[in-house]
Amino acid sequence: MALRYFSSPMPTALITGITGQDGSYLTEQLLDQGYTVHGLVRRTSNTVRSRLDPLFHNKDVYNKNLFLHYADLDDTTTIRRILVKTQPDELYHLAGQSHVGASFDIPESTCQFTAMGTLKILEILRDLEKQPRFLHISSSEIFGRPDESPQNEHTPMRPVTPYGVAKTFATQMVQLYRESFGLFACNAICYNHESPRRGESFVTRKITKAAAEISLGLSDEIVLGSLDGRRDWGSAPEYTTAMHLMLQQDAPDDYVLATGQTHSVEEFLDAAFRSVGLDYQDHLQQNPKYMRPAEVTRLVGDPTHAKKQLGWTPATTALDLAKQMTAADVESLKRLAASS
Ligand code: GDR
């Protein structure tokens, strides 16, 4: 059956990384605003896309306003074909290898997808007749060990992890294509952003899932690496709202998306466990396996530019997130138990 992509007068967006935490929130927000949304998905034998399930199973949405296409990030001919076929007004590039710790074990593929994957998309855009507005999700990891704190859009990049180096390359390429080739291309320089949809290998979700399991008697311990790291943690759906606002401006620019506050891993752990009446010290094990050869330090963002230009204000704090995410994990484990 031929799908009709051009039935709506509303804008069309294409999202790489649509099945991820940010991709799923952004998709919901754009569909709510009447967009037609296309997403790129990797071809794997596992077709579980739990974050998109409610949309996927909604007959009024899937293949009407939401379409998925198979394409790997290094498959430039397919990406080009999808761009020509779907003619998006906005392209949100969220895909990539997003695990900082893992990037020490797989530096080459991290650079292949995160750095070269972004360059390949920019190269395709350069040749297109209709160039969509382009957003690249950059990261606070580009600052690494910064000389100044908090960091803003002008802070020099000094990455200390393979992931940070790959993101730095991609961020600077976005700037270069904006300045040299006139693309409407923006970097969303995102500090950590979390939600109940966060992948379970990231520390916040690992903590909240463990707190929920222990509180329900399903487990007794949590194994972590260093508790000393400090992060500027905000709420993922608030950050995807800002990403959309970035592409509605008159001119392309880079924006730091952050709360301006930091907490240690230990503080987040304490808040999550306390929220279900537990003391984390009764359950904590530490394992060097989860410690990194190099850690970023003093990472805290200054979101003044986003506040002034986009009118965006982050509302949710890290300690709110610890409670909300733990409560969501408790609920989902209870639902699972009731259904089995
Ligand atoms: P980060 O997030 O590396 O900041 O990258 P992560 O949640 O992985 O780590 C945060 C801090 O927790 C410490 N830590 C552990 N981390 C993990 N994953 N697992 C553990 O068991 C553990 N124990 C302690 C880490 O050492 C670190 O200090 C995230 C990602 O989303 C990136 O893609 C994004 O660009 C940045 O945030 C901004």
From TrEMBL:
Q: What is its EC number?
A: 4.2.1.47
Task: List each copy of the NAD(P)-binding domain by range.
Answer: 14-325
Record has NADP as a keyword: yes
Cited InterPro entries: GDP_Man_deHydtase (IPR006368), NAD(P)-bd_dom (IPR016040), NAD(P)-bd_dom_sf (IPR036291)
What enzyme category does the UniProt record give? Answer: lyase
* One Pfam family, short name: GDP_Man_Dehyd
- Please list the cofactors this protein needs: NADP(+)
List, from the UniProt record, the residues annotated as the active site of this protein. 168, 191
Reaction(s) catalysed (UniProt annotation): GDP-alpha-D-mannose = GDP-4-dehydro-alpha-D-rhamnose + H2O
Specify whether NADP is a keyword of the entry.
yes
GO terms classed as biological process: 'de novo' GDP-L-fucose biosynthetic process
* Record GO terms (molecular function): GDP-mannose 4,6-dehydratase activity; NADP+ binding
Family membership noted in the UniProt record: Belongs to the NAD(P)-dependent epimerase/dehydratase family. GDP-mannose 4,6-dehydratase subfamily.
Summarizing the function annotation, the protein's role is: Catalyzes the conversion of GDP-D-mannose to GDP-4-dehydro-6-deoxy-D-mannose.
Name of the molecule in the record: GDP-mannose 4,6-dehydratase
Identify the species of origin: Rhodopirellula islandica
Q: Source taxonomy lineage?
A: Bacteria, Pseudomonadati, Planctomycetota, Planctomycetia, Pirellulales
